[in-house]
Amino acid sequence: MRCCGKLEALLVGLALWLAAGAALASGIVAESARLVADEDGGFSLVADFRVDLNRRLEDAVNKGVVLYFTADFELKRSRWYWFDQVAARRGKTFQLSYHALTRQYRLSSGALHQSFFSLEDALRVLSRLRHWRVVDKDEVDSDVDYVASARLRLDPSQMAKTFQVSALSNRDWSLSSEWLVWNFSFPEAPPEDAAPGEEEDGDGDGDGKEEEEKEEEEEEEEKKEEEDAR
Question: Using alpha carbons only, what angle is made at residue 149 by residues 145 and 153, rounded to the nearest 5 degrees?
Answer without folding.
Answer: 170
